[in-house]
Task: structure prediction
Amino acid sequence: MKQSWWKIGVVVVLVMAIAAVIAQKQQKQSATPREPVASSMSASTDQSTPAPPTTSAAQPQQTTTAETPVKTGEVCPTPPPNVSKNALAKGAGQPAGVKGTTPADSPKTTKPPKAVVAPAVKPTPKALPKLVDVGSTQCIPCKMMAPILEELKTAYKGQLVVEFVDVNENRDTAAQYGVDTIPTQIFFDASGKEFSRHIGFFPKDDILATFAKQGITLAK
Result:
């Protein structure tokens, strides 16, 4: 009898434990919300709360970048960040009061100013040796010197300066040269310094020889 009561006690304890476990499971199931109810609640929540407006990718986003002063006629070569070409043409992304840059609004091209041409500067004439013949158109030796002087002037142009001074028309010039007898030939080097003079008729070869003695060679 004692063994049978012990078995019955064990069975009762097991049954009570199983019943307790089943009761706990039922409590958990009752506490956990069912999926259909949750979905319906979420659907009702979605219907009652309006969704925030979505920003379209095509619409330009306004930026709060610092704006620099815009000069009259200034154009923007490239569109600013986050601004499409169409929005730029309509004036988007530009400061208030400034229209969008279009081909019609672009400044007209102007002709470049004419280049200023400096006046031509005449080159300084090269210093040349000089022969001055002081004479007259009346005396015979002076007349004989005339063709020689003309020949020297033509043959050695650019190498020698030949000058004739008529004492009848230029008495002051003759006096400056200190001439009291005609004809008188006065020889000057390239620096304007007198290095020789001759009184009377003087042939062409003697004139060239006088320059050659001074180291001045005249070549045709």
Notes: The helical segments are 2-31, 35-48, 85-89, 140-155, 171-177, 204-213. The longest helix spans residues 2-31. Residues 28 and 167 are 149 Å apart (CA to CA).
